[in-house]
């Protein structure tokens, strides 16, 4: 082998060694960071759940004790997670992912916490595209409107009052914006109806199971007009 070819081969070997070392270092960094990243994600998920399910309501692992639900007519999602709260081994509530598909700008994603008696513990919007200054009143940083669901149930207000005031119900709409609060009120009502009908099955299923419900909620009282 000529001197030039030998030098080229040595250079290639050195570059290959550097590449292998770089890959090994990256793999090591990823391995070391994986644990802290997973824990940070877990804590963020627990903080989100705590907004609708107070920590004193459960003593189980809320993230692990969950099922997947396919009930689009009820929850507005093809697939939704439902977390089960238990206290001293007894069923004590649910946290459900839900969606209001009829927001002014499209989907409004929700977390809804419900206690064992069917009362709302909390509702939070997790994603939306509503108009700033109008529909974004569903965000706690913009108003306290979303907090008014806490303590409500299907009997409080009565079924025919689960609507915004413009539709004859008990829930305020926003100034200049009715579609957004109407969509959220209807989604929360459907979620409570779902829990009332299927709550026992949700609590009894094995953790990690996927449940399918092909039935549909009762017709709502709110109109579906696409107007402000």
UniProtKB/TrEMBL annotation:
Record PANTHER family:
ION-TRANSLOCATING OXIDOREDUCTASE COMPLEX SUBUNIT G
Record-stated family: Belongs to the RnfG family.
Coiled coil ranges:
none
Q: Provide the membrane topology annotation.
A: Single-pass membrane protein
Q: Which InterPro entries match?
A: FMN-bd (IPR007329), Ion_transpt_RnfG/RsxG (IPR010209)
Name the gene behind this protein: rsxG
Task: Please report the name of this protein according to its UniProt entry.
Answer: Ion-translocating oxidoreductase complex subunit G
Q: Which GO CC annotations does the UniProt entry carry?
A: plasma membrane
| Chief location | membrane
Ranges of residues in domain FMN-binding: 103-195
Cross-referenced Pfam families: FMN_bind
Q: What is its EC number?
A: 7.-.-.-
A GO molecular function for this record? electron transfer activity
Location of the region described as Disordered in the Swiss-Prot/TrEMBL record: 208-228
- Lineage of origin: Bacteria, Pseudomonadati, Pseudomonadota, Gammaproteobacteria, Lysobacterales
Q: What does this protein do?
A: Part of a membrane-bound complex that couples electron transfer with translocation of ions across the membrane.
What this protein needs as a cofactor is: FMN
Q: Which GO terms describe its biological process?
A: electron transport chain
FMN phosphoryl threonine carried by residues? 178
Class of this enzyme? translocase
Q: How does it assemble?
A: The complex is composed of six subunits: RnfA, RnfB, RnfC, RnfD, RnfE and RnfG.
Q: Where in the cell is it found?
A: Cell inner membrane
State the UniProt keywords alphabetically: Cell inner membrane, Cell membrane, Electron transport, Flavoprotein, FMN, Membrane, Phosphoprotein, Translocase, Transmembrane, Transmembrane helix, Transport
Q: Where are the transmembrane segments?
A: 12-33
């Amino acid at each position: 082998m000529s001197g030039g070819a030998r030098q080229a081969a040595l250079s290639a070997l050195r570059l290959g060694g550097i590449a292998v070392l770089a890959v090994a270092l990256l793999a090591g960094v990823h391995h070391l960071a994986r644990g802290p990243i997973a824990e940070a994600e877990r804590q963020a998920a627990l903080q989100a759940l705590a907004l609708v399910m107070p920590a004193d309501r459960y003593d189980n692992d809320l993230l692990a004790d969950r099922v997947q639900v396919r009930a689009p007519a009820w929850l507005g999602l093809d697939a939704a997670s439902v977390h089960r709260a238990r206290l001293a081994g007894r069923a004590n509530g649910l946290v459900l992912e839900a969606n209001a598909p009829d927001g002014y700008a499209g989907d409004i994603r929700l977390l809804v916490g419900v206690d064992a008696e069917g009362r709302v513990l909390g509702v939070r919007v997790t994603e939306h595209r509503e108009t700033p200054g109008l529909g974004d009143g569903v965000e706690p940083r913009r108003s306290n409107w979303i907090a008014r669901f806490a303590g409500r149930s299907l009997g409080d207000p009565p079924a025919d009052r689960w609507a915004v005031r413009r539709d004859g119900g008990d829930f305020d709409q926003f100034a200049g914006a009715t579609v957004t609060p109407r969509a959220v009120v209807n989604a929360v009502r459907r979620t409570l109806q779902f829990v009332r009908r299927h709550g026992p099955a949700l609590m009894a299923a094995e953790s990690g199971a996927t449940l399918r419900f092909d039935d549909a909620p009762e017709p709502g009282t709110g109109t579906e007009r696409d107007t402000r």
